[in-house]
Amino acid sequence: MHHVDIVALGLLLFIACLVAIVCRRLGQPYAIGLVIAGVGLSLSGYKSGIELTPQLVFTVLLPPLVFEAAMHLGWAQFRRESALVLSLAFGGTLLSALVVALCMHLAAGWGWPASLLFGSLIAATDPVSVIAMMKDQAAPQRLRFLMEAESLVNDGAAAVLFALVAAWIAGSAVGPGPIALALIMTVGGGVLLGLAVGGAMMMVAGRSGDHLVEITLTMLAAYGAFLLAEELHVSGVLATLSAGMLVGNWGKGRMLTEAGGVAVVRFWDFAAFLANSVVFLLIGCREGAQPLGSYWLPAVIGTAAVLIGRAAAIYPIARLFRNSRLAVDRLTQHILFWGGLRGALALALALGAPVSLPEHDALVGVAFAVVAFSIFVQGLTVPFLLKRSVGT
Question: How far apart are CA 34 and CA 41, in angstroms?
């Protein structure tokens, strides 16, 4: 069985390499090409034996994606933009989730538990392919930073909100007091744990002059922070995010050797490429096998609700900063709105929804439909907005 899984993984990675070559020559988004390839594999009847499960996403694929992106977030710019980023990530996530939940309850007829759960999980954005497009098209540096920083913190906020709603459904968190306490513990505990784990690994790395040891320690920081946080029931995404920012801003140039810093960046670029390749191929395979036609009406409602919710998260909050140094122009707001793609985290949370919910199957189906719309429609049209941003 393990041999079959390894062979299947090798085949998926080989396909990912071919897709990357073709997409680069055609000038098309790499992530979208992977999803199309995955759909093709599914429709052809190929079964890799590797499935997109919450366990695979959370324990294997998500930590390197979060850690690699966090390493490139400059602390000085994050501090300058923190009020805007945190408002979009936390306030925007809550607004978006509530709007989506209200739409699903009123228009799709879902119960409040399923509506709130869907609203929280689908608030997680995943603009990996959009960030790649920004780099290719030399989009403005602030736009790239806002998109990446908001997405990373947003992922953590959505995962925390999903856990709180799931706890409320299970009856273990009732009333505003316990929910507020759980929120503070989950968010604060994740950040502090990530800083502690990342700091400990960098202290050890400072005593080594071997770049291979330094790479290994950063890997332990990424996975160790995430898995330990999940074990302690705090935010694994925020823990890995904190560890990644610490390594990127304090480790490189201080605790890591010059050769080690270069090697660490290259290693995590490679790790993120592997994780992205597997994630989007498996999304495509699952999309091809998903009976989306069975839930077409709630899927249409859900897709519209997600767009409305994203608009409610971006435009009102950006308006609050219109007369400050953090003001965001209209085109940047439009890109933040339309570029808020959904991906692996939203699907992992959907697949982990309580099976006791009457709308469980519909919830999963609608989540896959929203992700498909996000990747194919939004992902293919965002470059037109990006070209306008480059020209301004």
Answer: 10
User: Does pLDDT of 392 surpass 60?
Assistant: no
Place of tokens 């799709």: 108
Q: Looking at the domain that runs over 2-126+154-391, which CATH code has it been given? A: 1.20.1530.20
**Residues of the chain above pLDDT 70, percent:** 93
Q: What tokens appear for 272 in the block?
A: 């993120």
DSSP SS3 for 121: helix
Q: Output phi, psi for 326, to 5 deg.
A: -95, 15
Residues 89/148, Cβ–Cβ less than 8 Å? no
| pLDDT tens per residue, range 147-179 | 889 999 998 999 999 988 988 888 765 667 777
Q: What are the residue ranges of helices labelled H in 206-257?
A: 211-231, 236-246
Q: Strand, coil or helix: what is 321?
A: coil
Residue indicated by tokens 């979009």: 88
What does pTM read for this prediction?
0.90
| Among 5, 279, 268, CA closest to 126 | 279
Residue 2: pLDDT above 50?
Answer: no
Domain ranges of the chain: 2-126+154-391
Q: How many CB atoms lie within 10 A of CB 18?
A: 11
- Distance (Å, whole) CA 256 – CA 240: 19
- The DSSP output letter for 293 is G
Q: Does pLDDT of 138 surpass 80?
A: no
Averaged confidence pLDDT in the chain:
89
